[in-house]
Amino acid sequence: MNQIKAISLNLLIPLFIASVFAVILYNAQKMPEILFDIVVYLFYGFSLLVIWVSWHFNRNRFIFVIIPLILIYLGFEYFDAKKATLLFMYASMLYPLHLMFFLIFKERGLFSFWGILKIVFVLLEISLVFYLLYYPKESIETYLSIKLFTANFYPLKDLSIAIGIFVLFVMLALVLFGRYLMYATSFFILLLTFYGGLYFLKTPNATEVAFLAFTTIIFVLLIRESYRLAFYDELTSLPGRRAMIEDMAKLGRKYSLAMCDIDFFKKFNDTYGHDTGDEVLKMVASKFREVSGGGKAYRYGGEEFVILFPSKETSESLVHVDNLRQQIATTPFSVRNRKSVKKIYINISAGVTQNSQKDKDPFAVMKRADNALYKAKKAGRNQVIKG
């Protein structure tokens, strides 16, 4: 359910942005010309903003996405008709692949080995396009103009459409495997927006509006990723400690809280290795994410998790925490080695308590929940104790 919600959110926000700009373009004749002069400046402004924020937050993938887009737009503006036509063809084929490549590969740092390799790749890509623009090869143009479909997509080449379909299938596969959800689900709208800017190249103001929409979507993705990095745990994808502190400040007069811990996790790490331990954390986190009773789970640190239950008393939330404990305890976890697969079961212990008038802040409640957790461990683990 949470994955469906994430996919919907990642799709709807770019779709909304693209729709707003489509409405603007549809009503272009009714709008003052100065508005579209502003659109050009906004495109450059948003592009520079994306580059600056990307640099500041070390999200360099967006720099590699935006700079070629700016160059494509500048080419359409300043090249003669023949070069602009060639640029149109090469951009429609190369940029979708470029976009896919840079959205799915991990951040490695701009001046790391992989970062420098990406810089070299982009420079080679740009150099190749410039070479083909200034030294056109008729044989290459003929090959790239090959007919693949009975339908006519003019002015886009069939190969451009085929490449677009290919990258969409790659992104769809990533969505199905739960990888890169934010980028993969937004990619469809980004690709349509880019192709729209090319398809309506000769329509006044269309490319400017489409490219501004594209840049705006990229900017929103950048802000959302920066937020995710700040407030979510990278390994488990659960909200982290900072998010918990923010949410604690919003709690009302009545709430309860559970401190939870994976039993014998250190011993498990020592026995099976930290990589397997990470997989255990992911599995347990997936169960915490689905906790019932209106609770919200956070990774507090290491093998510790916190669940907040707004407007719930201890007696109410304890039932939901114990249900969670049972779900985890009955879920087999497969440990693989070279010779066999071994199934083991993971247990958690938890302490649950609610706020009182004596508590100065939620951290005092957390302290009592932590004491209850300690009692649960002393009593034999794999249980939930009321604090």
From TrEMBL:
PROSITE patterns per the UniProt record, alphabetical: GGDEF
SUPFAM superfamilies on file: Nucleotide cyclase (SSF55073)
E.C. number: 2.7.7.65
Superkingdom field: Bacteria
Coiled-coil regions listed: none
GO cellular component assignments: plasma membrane
EC class (word): transferase
GO molecular function: diguanylate cyclase activity
Official protein name in the record: diguanylate cyclase
Domain GGDEF per the UniProt entry, residue ranges: 253-387
Record bears the keyword Transmembrane helix: yes
Record-level GO BP terms: cell adhesion involved in single-species biofilm formation; negative regulation of bacterial-type flagellum-dependent cell motility
UniProt entry keywords in alphabetical sequence: Membrane, Transmembrane, Transmembrane helix
Transmembrane segments annotated in the record for this chain: 7-28, 34-55, 62-79, 85-105, 112-134, 154-174, 181-200, 206-223
Catalytic activity, as annotated: 2 GTP = 3',3'-c-di-GMP + 2 diphosphate
Any single Pfam family the record assigns to this protein: GGDEF
